[in-house]
Amino acid sequence: MASYRIRQYQDQDYDAVRTLFARGILEHTPAGYRHFLRSAWAQLGLLVFFVAVRAAAGYWVLGLGAMALVLAATWLLVRSFSTSYVRQALSTDLCDITASYLRAPDSCFWVAEAGGSVVGMVAVAPPQDPAERGVALELKRMSVSKDYRGRGVSKALCGEVLRFARARGYGAVVLSTSMVQVAAQRLYEGQGFKKVGAFSPSLLGSLLCFQIFHYRCDLPGRTAAP
C-alpha cells in the first residue's frame, strides 16, 4: 500500500510547494557544473588559459591560482543560471498557483502528501508553443522530495497528468526537462514520452553547454480538443 496520497493543491500547500520546487532545481546545479567542465571546448579553454597565465607570469603557482579563480567564477555563473530560473518561476505561475492552475481552463496542480507533508508536486496547463495549443497539454513543475524518490511518487504524479489530458480529449502531453535531470528523463521515457527536440534556453545556457530536452507522449485513441 502506498505511503503517500495524490490530491489537488490547496492554499495551505503554498510555502511547501515553492520550497520543494526551489530545492529540486538547485540540487541539479553541481551536475550542470560537472557537465560544463566535461565539455571539450571548456577543457580546451581552461588549458589555453592556464598555459597563457603560466607563460606570462612565469610561475606555476600563479597559473594554478588563476585557474582556481576561473573555476570558482564558473561555479557562480552556473549557480546564477539555476537561481534565476527559480526566481522567474516563483514570480510567475508559482506566485499565484490557484490562479495559474486551478482557475485556468484545462489546467490543474497536484501534490503528493505523506505524513502530513508535501513530498511531491506536478502541474498541467496548455503549452506555451502555439502549435501545440488545442492539441496537447504540458506537464510542468514536477518535483519530488529526495526522501521519497524511488517509491513511485513521480510515476503516480505523471499518471495524473496523463489521465487528466485523456479525460479532456487531448491527443498528447508535452514537457521540457534539462539535460542534467537524467532520472527525470528515465521516468518520462518509461511512461511513453519520446524526446522530440533540444534547445539552449538562453545565450548563457549556450555558453554553459546547457540544453533543454523537449518530450512528447501521444495518447492513442484520443483526438485533439476543440
Automatic annotation (TrEMBL):
Coiled-coil features, chain-numbered ranges: none
Top-rank taxon: Eukaryota
Annotated N-acetyltransferase domain residues: 68-220
Alphabetical list of CDD domains matching this protein: NAT_SF (cd04301)
SUPFAM superfamilies: Acyl-CoA N-acyltransferases (Nat) (SSF55729)
Keyword flag Kinase: no
Gene3D superfamilies for the chain: 3.40.630.30
InterPro entries linked: Acyl_CoA_acyltransferase, GNAT_dom, NAT_camello-type
GO terms for MF: N-acetyltransferase activity
TM helices/strands, residue ranges: 59-78
Keyword set, alphabetical order: Membrane, Transferase, Transmembrane, Transmembrane helix
Name of this chain's protein: NT8F2 acetyltransferase
Organism whose genome encodes this protein: Spizaetus tyrannus (black hawk-eagle)
Recorded name of the encoding gene: Nat8f2
